[in-house]
Amino acid sequence: MSDNAHNERIYYNREGMIIPDSKKAEHIIWELKFEMNNPRNDGWTGSDMKKRLWDIKNAVDEALIDAPTYSGEEPYDDIYVMKVLKGKRTELK
Questions:
Q1: Torsion sign, CA atoms 61, 75, 26, 87
Q2: Counting beta carbons within 10 angstroms of the beta carbon of residue 41, is it exposed (0 to 12), middle (13 to 18) or buried (19 or more)?
Q3: Is the whole-model pTM more than 0.85?
Q4: What is the rounded distance in angstroms from the CA atom of residue 2 to the CA atom of residue 34?
Q5: How far is CA 87 from CA 26, 33, 45, 60, 61, in A?
Q6: pLDDT tens digits, 10-60
Q7: Where are the beta strands (DSSP E) in 1-93?
Q8: Which of 33, 68, 27, 79 is nearest to 52 (CA)?
Q9: Is the pLDDT of residue 4 over 60?
Q10: Which of 46, 22, 25, 52 is nearest to 34 (CA)?
Q11: pLDDT at 93 over 70
Q12: Quick count: other Cβ atoms within 10 Å of Cβ 5?
């Protein structure tokens, strides 16, 4: 068994760097959101799904704190702030 046996898919670029499958992470977030809002689940289950989503959000926020700016990338910070100001994102209000 390899060291990466726990990973379903591992991609490598030409330099041999590991490139994680972000679509899997997006799917997990979708599943958590679905189960959090599922009327068949009780409040205990829904609140656990919400906590997991907050844990993911906080981990992403922490990972982006010192993220460098790369040449040619979109101004993600500006796009996010504009969505907040236009009322499309309400978590910072």
A1: positive
A2: middle
A3: no
A4: 33
A5: 23, 21, 29, 22, 20
A6: 566 677 777 777 888 999 999 999 999 999 999 999 999 999 999 999 999
A7: 11-12, 18-19
A8: 33
A9: no
A10: 46
A11: no
A12: 7
Long-range contacts of the stretch 24-29 (C-beta < 8 A, 24+): 29/53, 29/56
Which residue, chain included where needed, has tokens 């994102």? 89
Asked if 51 contacts 37 with a C-beta cutoff of 8 angstroms, the reply is: no
Q: pLDDT-based confidence at 83, cuts 50/70/90?
A: confident
Structure tokens at 86: 């236009």
pLDDT value at 1 more than 50 = no
DSSP one-letter code for 67: P
Q: Which two structure tokens, joined as six digits, stand for 27?
A: 């799917």
